[in-house]
Design goal:
It is a single chain. This protein has about 280 residues and is of the alpha+beta class. The protein has three domains: about 160 residues, Jelly Rolls (Sandwich); about 45 residues, no CATH class; about 55 residues, Arc Repressor Mutant, subunit A. The chain contains twelve helices and seven strands. Strands 1, 2, 3, 4, 5, 6 and 7 form a seven-stranded mixed sheet that branches. α4 runs antiparallel to α5 and α9 crosses α12. The longest helix has 20 residues. Keywords: DNA-binding, Transcription, Transcription regulation. It holds the Pfam family AraC_binding. This is AraC-like DNA-binding protein.
Length: about 280
């Protein structure tokens, strides 16, 4: 795998691409990527994230990534090393000593998702990038205080993004037991166990939830739900007293036929046959 090295402490690249010009690569620097327009997919380590206009991505040294472009995309890359912020001997009044721009870039869940902000931050973010690009086209950005504070403002928005999602940078993530208990309690309610609903309930980004779940449970969310539903359906069938229509209704299947197809796909026989085994 190719490794992308950078020796300058700051580098700005603005490019329009019909096809992504870089193959999968690792890097030795930090990178903020802004999508002005276009759509496609961002492949980050083992995670695939769809992108569109206004999205922001973060990368840190050692990360592997590339993009696939589905519609012509304008990318802006702000690439910097850890020495960039050290060059400016200033205190970050809006950041604690523990929470610095580079420490934000290392937050795993934040890198494995896309950052999308709403108005007015969306317009502000776009203008910040346009200002940096304009400055970069005419002057040396490396020693520019204007560019420095523009980049710092991006981190201010990212910090606010995290706070608005009610997730503190040091807050513990929900335990597997909490998530499993929620699923068990709501297994019969398809709306409550939808990715959007359960992700929002635990303050996890919906686009990141599947990755988060598989990493912590070592099984995909879809397979986990199906496995639990199957266990409960078997228990209902083994009683011999509950009608198939009642089971189908309980677990949100459209009809008995839908239930039968689901059951046979996993067990190799239909519910009626399974029900008769115990007789």
């Amino acid at each position: 795998m190719r490794k992308c090295s950078q020796f300058e402490s700051l580098k700005i690249i603005d490019v329009i691409e019909e096809e992504y010009s870089c193959e999968l690569h690792a890097q030795d620097h930090f990178e903020i990527i802004y999508i002005h327009y276009g759509c496609g997919e961002h492949f980050f380590n083992e995670v695939t994230i769809p992108y569109e206009k206004g999205d922001l991505f973060l990368l840190a040294p050692g990360d592997r990534h590339y993009f696939t472009v589905k519609a012509v995309t304008r990318f802006t890359y702000i690439k910097f090393t850890s020495s960039y912020f050290e060059t400016y001997d200033r205190s970050y009044k809006s950041f604690s000593r523990e929470i610095t721009p580079t420490s934000i870039m290392e937050i795993q869940w934040l890198k494995e998702d896309k950052i999308t902000v709403s108005e007015p931050c969306q317009t502000i973010l776009k203008n910040v990038f346009e200002n940096i690009i304009l400055y970069n086209s005419t002057l040396n950005v490396l020693r520019s205080s204007i560019v420095y504070y523009h980049i710092l403002s991006i981190f201010g928005m990212i910090k606010e993004y995290i706070e608005n999602r009610n997730i503190e940078l040091k807050k513990k993530t929900p335990t597997n037991a909490h998530i499993a208990a929620y699923i068990q309690e709501n297994i019969s309610n398809r709306d409550c166990i939808s990715i959007n609903m359960i992700a929002n309930n635990f303050n996890i980004s919906p686009s990141y939830f599947s990755t988060y779940f598989k990493r912590n449970f070592e099984i995909s969310y879809k397979k986990y739900i199906e496995k639990m539903q199957l266990q409960l359906i078997k228990r209902r069938l083994e009683t011999g007293e509950i009608k198939l229509k009642e089971i189908a209704d309980e677990f949100g299947f459209t009809d008995v036929s839908h239930l039968s197809k689901f059951f046979k796909r996993h067990e190799g026989l239909n519910p009626s046959a399974y029900k008769n085994i115990g007789k």
